Every structure is written in C-alpha cells, then in structure tokens.
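ok trying this again, last paste got cut off
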Amino acid sequence: MRVRIHEDMLITAEDENSSLILAGNGKAMSPIKALLASLGGCTGIDVLTILKKMREDVREVSIHIDYERAKEYPRIYTKIYLKYVIVGNVKRESVEKAIKLSAEKYCSIHAMLSKSTHVTRTYEIINPCEKKG
C-alpha cells in the first residue's frame, strides 16, 4: 500500500486492487473518521454474513456510530458507541449471537480498538413484515 499526502491535504491510498481518498482539509472524510467507517464496515459485514449463515431473513445491516475523543493530543477515541440496525425478519437471539461473534472473534478492527477504547454495542431490529398499529 502507498499513501500520499498532497499539498492541498488531500490523501490518496492505493494498493494493488483499489484506492481511497481521504482529506485533512475537510473536503473528504478524515483519517480518524475513516477508522470508524472501517469499524462499521468490518463488523457490519460480519453480522450480515453470520445472520445469512444462520438462514435468517436479513435484508440490511446499518451501524450508527457515536464516539467520544480525548481532549488532549493524541486525541484518541475514548468511547465508541455502535448501534446496529438490522432490517429483516430475524430472531433477537440470532442478532445477539452475530454481534457477539463479530466483536469477540471476527472483526479485526474491533479487536484492535477495544484494547484501548471502551466499545458499547446495542441493536434494533426493524421487521418490514410487521404491521404498525
């Protein structure tokens, strides 16, 4: 991988298969926020894959992320709050198991961040088949 920081603070990262644009100038996602996006993507893919392997009728997994950062430099994340929103006709027990497996076994980014940061996980299930009354 090669990362270049251009004079306008635009950051490009490239490997043999793909590229990514970040910025230190507010014109794209910052590297520190990209870390959170990577966490959401990593754990979200895990949860979706695990639920599908459980033969659950899952249609979408979204992760809403809030955070707190240290006031002094380096301004690391001190707390990360993950709220999983699962869309589909899924069992609560399956969702809980999938989130736990992602956090404790599969998601490398979660494993790294949780060594230095308190990570809280909650979830909501939205069943589009249920009638709202």
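PB: full thing came through this time. The mean pLDDT is 96.
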